[in-house]
Design goal:
By secondary structure, this protein is an alpha/beta fold. It folds into two domains: 7-175, Leucine Aminopeptidase, subunit E, domain 1, CATH 3.40.220; 196-500, Aminopeptidase (3-Layer(aba) Sandwich), CATH 3.40.630.10. 33% of the residues lie in helices and 21% in strands. The protein contains 15 helices and 20 strands. It has an eight-stranded mixed beta sheet with strand order 8-9-11-10-14-18-15-16, with helices on both faces. Strands 1, 2, 3, 4, 5, 6 and 7 form a seven-stranded mixed beta sheet that branches. Strands 12-13-17 form a three-stranded mixed beta sheet. β2 (20-30) and β3 form a beta hairpin. α4 (166-190) runs antiparallel to α9 (291-305), α10 (351-366) packs parallel to α13 (443-452) and α12 packs across α14 (487-495). It starts with 6 loop residues before the first strand and ends with a helix. The protein binds ligand BES, manganese (II) ion (MN) and zinc ion.
């Protein structure tokens, strides 16, 4: 596991701060010149000169180093936040991420920080900055053996906020628990598909029982999956040498209540496309096809660490979508857990099959108050929204409202797409109850409508994270490869579970 250490502290005043490798001073840009975003501290001549000669202008993400003579820090780091009027927590995350890159390059391990004075609630401000500091520390180096990246020497280890309350310090410390969940998600997605197999995913879930006595994990092996008649998950699994797993992990943080919320994850540990084989370039990042399940586990892990007062059930349907002489066949019909039959028109539309069994099992046996599934489901959602915005669908407007609020508060971008019922006709089959795909038109909507056939009346949302889960390049405040997208939003949603009980 990539270690997630971070020590947040507070100093009661500027004079009372401890020694550190750097002091961060935030600035706005106004009339193309930098102006302090904090109350005056007394004169630091070099800072005034840097601004006066125009070497530092306070633009968003601009970072400028000064080496003072008589301070507790060897470096004073001027951080540009852009224009005060247009500053948001999203932009702050980006600015502090660029700061972190400069700190990493200089092997800075400890910082003192002065918060910018800004019209954003203190809680949100501290949360955004603290999360960015910890999440920017992540780099996936497990498979790098050239020794280029030495850990932990060039990663930040601690930050001291100057002049914050105990309540705000607690929020900063909680960011570490949130980040631990995101790190788990990122590690699981970034590792080799041959290492993160369905069995390994199940072991990872099982290991969470050691984190908290409130977590209990049940794993169905292939025999049990056959007994449960999860024929769609089994169809996907036919071509693989590896057995499938069906995982149910519960976090019981509110034992006095029977209400629980379910998160369902697509756990395709590698997607070759099956007999509808993908071309090489499309297969390149298909080890990330279990990102939905990794997100669900990361969220459960963080919920337990944060000791949230909610009941959460994580459900994962996991298999490889391989190719072989036993592969499930294009044109054949398979019957799932719900009893519905499905004509396979494309074996590369495998995620919706695995999820159909997971969703119908969750609805029938686990009876959640509401449920959300996460899946790298369609390339079409990336065509529609790119890789920064998740496309989601919901059969319940109040649930959608809560999702958008949480997404907004955590700066995870999301956009609702329609469950256009007239398009369901596209999935009509002559031999079965439904077919699993129907070409390129409205591809993401087709997939969502397919899933909707298995959720009955339960308030449900489907998040298609095909674009947001995994990036070849580092962008905005995310590292390259797995982004861990979704964990923060889901945790916020769960913290507000009381709103979800009234859907
Ligand atoms: N796992 C893929 C979707 C995907 C594409 C995820 C790109 C991440 C990045 C999914 O199983 C898939 O293959 N979907 C097909 C559906 C089609 C056959 C109806 C697709 O999007 O092409
Ligand atoms: Mn596929
Ligand atoms: Zn897939």
């Amino acid at each position: 596991m990539t270690k997630c250490h971070f020590n947040f502290q507070k100093a009661t005043s500027f004079a009372a701060r401890d020694k550190a490798d750097g002091l961060i001073l935030p600035f706005w840009t106004k009339d193309k010149s930098a102006v302090p975003a904090f109350k005056k501290l007394g004169k630091i001549p070099q800072v005034d000169t840097a601004i006066k000669v125009g070497d530092f202008n306070g633009h968003k993400g601009e970072v400028f180093f000064i080496y003072p003579e008589k301070e507790k820090e060897q470096r004073i780091i001027l951080l540009g936040l852009g224009k005060k009027e247009s500053c948001t927590t999203f932009l702050l995350r980006e600015a502090f991420h660029s700061l972190m890159k400069e700190c990493h390059a200089r092997r800075i391990q400890s910082l003192n920080l002065i918060l910018p004075e800004i019209a954003i609630e203190d809680e949100k401000l501290v949360k955004a900055i603290s999360e960015t500091l910890v999440l920017s520390n992540y780099q996936f180096t497990e498979l790098k053996h050239d020794g280029l990246i030495k850990r932990p020497a060039n990663f930040l280890e601690s930050a001291q906020f100057i002049g914050i309350s105990d309540k705000l310090l607690k929020i900063a410390k909680q960011a570490v628990d949130v980040a631990k969940g995101v790190y788990l998600t990122r590690d699981l997605v970034n590792r080799n598909a041959d290492d993160v197999t369905p069995e390994k995913l199940a072991d990872t879930a099982k290991a969470l029982e050691k984190v908290s006595s409130k977590i209990k994990v049940t794993v169905f092996d292939k025999k049990r999956i056959e007994k449960e008649k999860m024929g769609l998950l089994l169809a996907v699994n036919r071509g693989s040498n590896l057995e499938p797993r069906f995982i149910i992990a519960t976090y019981n943080g509110d034992p006095n209540s029977k209400d629980h919320f379910a998160l369902v994850g697509k756990g395709i540990t590698y997607d070759t496309g099956g007999l509808s084989l993908k071309p090489t370039n499309f297969m390149l990042d298909m080890k990330s096809d279990m990102a939905g399940s990794a997100t669900v586990l990361g969220t459960l892990y963080a919920a337990a660490n944060l000791n949230l007062k909610i009941n959460l059930t994580a459900v994962i349907a996991s298999s490889e979508n391989s190719i072989g002489s036993k592969s499930y066949k294009i044109g054949d019909v398979y019957q799932g857990y719900s009893g519905k039959t499905v004509e396979i028109t494309n074996t590369d539309a495998e995620g919706r099959l695995a999820l159909a069994d997971a969703l119908s099992y969750t609805v029938k046996k686990l009876k959640p108050k509401a449920m959300i599934n996460l899946a790298t489901l369609t390339g079409a959602v990336v065509v529609a929204l790119g890789d920064e915005i998740c496309g989601y669908f919901a059969n319940n407007d109040k649930l959608a409202e809560q999702i958008e609020k949480s997404a907004g508060d955590t700066d995870e971008l999301i956009w609702r797409l329609p469950l256009q019922q007239s398009y369901l006709k596209m999935l009509d089959s002559k031999v079965a109850d439904i077919k699993n795909s129907a070409g390129r038109e409205a591809g993401s909507i087709q997939a969502a409508l397919f899933l909707e056939q298995f959720v009955e009346k339960v308030p449900w949302a489907h998040m298609d994270i095909a674009g947001t889960a995994y990036w070849e390049k580092s962008k905005s405040y995310h590292p390259y490869f797995s982004t861990g997208y979704g964990v923060r939003m889901l945790l916020d949603l769960l913290e507000n579970f009381h709103n979800l009980k009234k859907l």
